[in-house]
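Entry:
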Amino acid sequence: MSLDQATVRRVAALARIRLSDADLPRVQGELNAILGWIEQLQAVDTEGVEPMAGGAPEGAAPMPMREDVVTEGGIADLILANAPDREGDYFAVPKVVE
Protein backbone atom coordinates (compact mmCIF):
# COMPACT_ATOMS: atom_id res chain seq x y z
CA MET A 1 0.00 0.00 0.00
CA SER A 2 1.27 3.45 -0.85
CA LEU A 3 -0.16 6.76 0.23
CA ASP A 4 -0.53 9.62 -2.21
CA GLN A 5 -0.07 13.26 -1.22
CA ALA A 6 -3.82 13.88 -0.89
CA THR A 7 -4.11 11.03 1.63
CA VAL A 8 -1.10 12.32 3.57
CA ARG A 9 -2.72 15.76 3.75
CA ARG A 10 -5.95 14.17 5.02
CA VAL A 11 -4.11 12.15 7.67
CA ALA A 12 -2.27 15.30 8.77
CA ALA A 13 -5.55 17.20 8.99
CA LEU A 14 -7.18 14.41 11.02
CA ALA A 15 -4.18 14.38 13.37
CA ARG A 16 -4.31 18.18 13.62
CA ILE A 17 -0.75 18.45 12.27
CA ARG A 18 0.12 21.51 10.23
CA LEU A 19 2.08 20.24 7.24
CA SER A 20 3.76 22.59 4.78
CA ASP A 21 4.07 21.75 1.08
CA ALA A 22 7.85 21.44 1.53
CA ASP A 23 7.42 18.77 4.26
CA LEU A 24 4.80 16.78 2.37
CA PRO A 25 7.18 14.53 0.34
CA ARG A 26 9.29 13.71 3.42
CA VAL A 27 6.25 12.76 5.53
CA GLN A 28 4.79 10.80 2.61
CA GLY A 29 8.01 8.78 2.39
CA GLU A 30 8.07 8.15 6.16
CA LEU A 31 4.43 7.00 6.23
CA ASN A 32 4.96 4.74 3.22
CA ALA A 33 8.02 3.21 4.95
CA ILE A 34 5.93 2.53 8.07
CA LEU A 35 3.24 0.88 5.97
CA GLY A 36 5.94 -1.21 4.29
CA TRP A 37 7.09 -2.48 7.68
CA ILE A 38 3.51 -3.37 8.58
CA GLU A 39 3.19 -5.33 5.33
CA GLN A 40 6.38 -7.21 6.26
CA LEU A 41 4.91 -8.10 9.66
CA GLN A 42 1.69 -9.32 8.05
CA ALA A 43 3.75 -11.66 5.85
CA VAL A 44 5.17 -13.51 8.89
CA ASP A 45 3.75 -17.03 9.26
CA THR A 46 2.06 -17.20 12.68
CA GLU A 47 0.32 -20.51 12.10
CA GLY A 48 0.42 -22.56 15.29
CA VAL A 49 1.62 -19.68 17.47
CA GLU A 50 -0.56 -19.26 20.53
CA PRO A 51 -1.76 -15.71 21.16
CA MET A 52 -0.44 -14.05 24.30
CA ALA A 53 -2.05 -11.54 26.63
CA GLY A 54 -0.12 -9.71 29.29
CA GLY A 55 3.28 -10.92 28.15
CA ALA A 56 3.13 -14.39 29.74
CA PRO A 57 2.22 -17.59 27.90
CA GLU A 58 -0.85 -19.57 28.91
CA GLY A 59 -0.19 -21.69 32.00
CA ALA A 60 2.89 -19.72 33.14
CA ALA A 61 3.34 -19.16 36.86
CA PRO A 62 1.82 -15.87 38.00
CA MET A 63 4.10 -13.05 39.00
CA PRO A 64 4.81 -12.96 42.73
CA MET A 65 2.93 -10.28 44.60
CA ARG A 66 4.08 -8.53 47.75
CA GLU A 67 1.93 -8.50 50.83
CA ASP A 68 -0.49 -5.59 51.04
CA VAL A 69 0.48 -4.33 54.48
CA VAL A 70 -0.54 -1.10 56.17
CA THR A 71 2.52 0.89 57.25
CA GLU A 72 2.81 3.30 60.11
CA GLY A 73 3.11 6.43 58.03
CA GLY A 74 3.93 9.59 59.93
CA ILE A 75 7.12 10.24 57.96
CA ALA A 76 6.06 13.45 56.25
CA ASP A 77 9.31 15.21 57.23
CA LEU A 78 11.36 12.47 55.57
CA ILE A 79 9.23 12.51 52.43
CA LEU A 80 9.21 16.31 52.15
CA ALA A 81 12.92 16.76 52.96
CA ASN A 82 13.80 17.42 49.29
CA ALA A 83 10.62 19.24 48.32
CA PRO A 84 11.29 22.59 46.67
CA ASP A 85 8.41 24.14 48.61
CA ARG A 86 6.06 22.87 51.26
CA GLU A 87 3.16 24.01 53.38
CA GLY A 88 2.98 22.07 56.62
CA ASP A 89 2.88 18.36 55.79
CA TYR A 90 2.04 18.94 52.10
CA PHE A 91 3.87 19.72 48.86
CA ALA A 92 3.27 23.33 47.81
CA VAL A 93 2.51 23.65 44.09
CA PRO A 94 1.63 26.68 41.99
CA LYS A 95 -2.02 27.25 41.25
CA VAL A 96 -2.78 26.22 37.67
CA VAL A 97 -6.55 26.69 37.53
CA GLU A 98 -8.24 30.01 38.12
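DSSP finds three helices and two strands in the chain.
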